[in-house]
Specification:
Layout lengths: L2 H14 L12 H10 L5 H14 L3 H4 L4 H8 L5 H18 L8 H6 L5 H11 L9 H10 L7 H11 L5 H14 L18 H6 L6
Helix pairs in contact: 1-11, 2-3, 2-6, 2-8, 5-6, 9-10, 9-11
Bound molecules: iron/sulfur cluster (SF4).
Amino acid sequence: MNDDAKDKILAELARLYPDARPALHYKTPYELLVAVILSAQCTDERVNKVTAELFKLYDTPEKMLTLSQEELEKYIFSCGFYRNKAAHILSATRDIAEKFGGEVPADHAALKTLAGVGQKTANVVYAVAFGGNAIAVDTHVFRVSNRLGLAHANTPEKTETQLNAAIPEKLWSEAHHWLIYHGRRVCHSQRPDCPNCTLKGLCEFYAATNIDNNK
Ligand code: SF4
């Protein structure tokens, strides 16, 4: 894809989603970190319901560490993968308490040292809570960016590297939200709404398939 097409895609995404922002509810970097861990394979709406209850009593590392694994599992059960998620939350929280004085580190490299925190979670927290530049490649970002042709990769890691090269750094965090919005509203996993997509004239997937779900 040439630079002109990339610029047009980014401009159109910016036009479509000027108010794109995270759907997860949080008040502090710590709450965001917990919410992002819970959001794997789960809807943001479900996570927001769970954290609304959880954070009433356990909204800091100190308070969270009063919970046992089993007690935390009961709170987050409905988010799925609750055993792993509870373990990851408690591991990361212990690291925050023991290595970072009870504060979520604002540095990307430090975030990635937290137990249970992978690249995607670190990127979201770094970008959203601390205003850093990062593209977190979730399922929507992966699918939409590879369909459009902003990336040509078969893993989230390679997709992130290619998006970092294709998109100006100052737009990384916004582009992450734009691609999520487009994936949720138009470029669905199973039935992308290509006929009504304003990006179809620039999209490699559309050019290759000329898909028209209305026919
Ligand atoms: S044209 Fe279709 S595949 Fe391409 S971005 Fe739009 S909805 Fe997705």
